[in-house]
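Reopening this one. Same input as before:
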Amino acid sequence: MPAIGITSPEDAAVRRAVKPVICYPNKTLPKVPLAFYQSVRQSAKKIDECLVPARAANCFVVPEGHFFRITSIEGPQVGDLNLWNSDNLNERFYSGKTRALHGSHITVGERMWSGFPALRPMATITDDSLSWYGMDEYGGSVHDVIGTRCDPYTNNLLSGGQYHHCCHSNLTRAFSDFTGIQLSDAEHYIHDVLNVFMCTGFTRDTGQYFMKASPVRPGDYLEFFAEINLFGALSACPGGDCSSEHSSDAASCYPLLVEVFAPQPGLLDDWVKPPVNAYDRTHGAD
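Same output, byte for byte:
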């Protein structure tokens, strides 16, 4: 709706009818060797796991060339995932650029990209039990890179109070406990997430971010190939399946399971991890 006192120009319809152009055509991205990854996964052996309690977070480590799987195990539950380069915590997941390259939601064959200056694949999705969902009639889909993460600051702004089980706080506590970094410093490492299993989109009328009941059920999973050495943190969101609300203890919530799988020796001998971005970083300065 135009602002008060603003009328539509005579050529408004013509302007609206201009066809869109994809900002970042992705056909020149490095090709994902998906069939190769999936063949390596067939003989991979489980070497580690961690349980993420309801309304809490936990951390895990995945060596490069290994696989990790996130599974719903007791009830419909979404999770907020952060990733870092375990050798350099300053390199971390960049949800905005991942969204620009792949779209609002990601699935098999698409990647989680790190931020500048590295800008390289951190993890590639190799399997997704919810890939059948696609895009629904509301414009909703699963595994989004559009939501930031529920946090106590926005909750306080909109509702008041001091709620500490928001995903931002869960991730901050888990990161601090695992690394030994002081809580106030650890908070600065927490970043926008991949919303695992969450079903979201934008409303057609107001363009607002929405959530709806996730289609996830116990046994559903999302699996990744680690392109670099990874340190991860996953929060089991206090919204449960996000069918009604988050940032409260009202929703039914359940744990999530993270499992790590090692490839058989020799299968990745010819594989090369992604290099950091080749831009020279001079930025046109003299």
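So the earlier flakiness isn't reproducible anymore. For the record, The chain is about 15% helix and 30% strand.
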